[in-house]
């Protein structure tokens, strides 16, 4: 009896040069960042703030380190700084930015903060190339990890793990695959992969990270992929 065809390795199709070319063709606007759905920005930012507030109430440091503003956070795959300005500036004193598209990074530098936080270092680099030089209370990753292969994502998570302060969190907010056979989905348009919950959990375990809180973002149009938060700590 012939063996079944092996499952395709979807992340092997990722081409970061093509992904960069795609994003360089997108206008540096909220509409561009959100794929033509600018109306979800407020819902998204409010959902992220609520998630972090619940996380901090559940997992405060014994010394009270996280009772006030977080000392330093980083917005990874920040785009034009929509999340930096609209959310992270309300919860962090300083927010570093990692963004591979230079025109987006320039927008993030000058973004008007809605909170008291300020932009610190701006790294024009892909996540696979970024070398953290600070320790972070919060490493925020949103709608960007699909451009990394599984191996790159594992290596990236290990870097993030080492860059956390004691009691800090890596938060991942990403689309979830809706494939009926629970497989990852490759998008040829922007050369990215939408992963399953099972794949994310496998990669977290490989990086020796534990999930301390998980939640689904509510209020997005049903035609969009479901979006899930994962808060991770070493463990």
* Strand line-up of the largest beta sheet: 3-2-1-4-5-9-8
Mean pLDDT: 94
Total number of helices: 7
Task: Tell me the strand percentage band.
Answer: 25-35%
Task: Write up this protein.
With 235 residues, the chain is α/β, with parallel strands linked by helices. Helices cover 31% and strands 26% of the residues. It is built from seven helices and nine strands. The protein has helices at 16-24, 30-33, 41-58, 82-91, 102-109, 150-162, 197-206; strands spanning 70-76, 92-98, 118-123, 136-142, 164-175, 185-187, 192-194, 209-216, 227-234. The strands form two sheets. It has a seven-stranded mixed sheet with strand order 3-2-1-4-5-9-8, with helices on both faces. The protein has a two-stranded antiparallel ribbon with strand order 6-7. Helix 6 (150-162) links the parallel strand 4 (136-142) and strand 5 (164-175). Helix 3 packs parallel to helix 4. It starts with 15 loop residues before the first helix and ends with a strand.
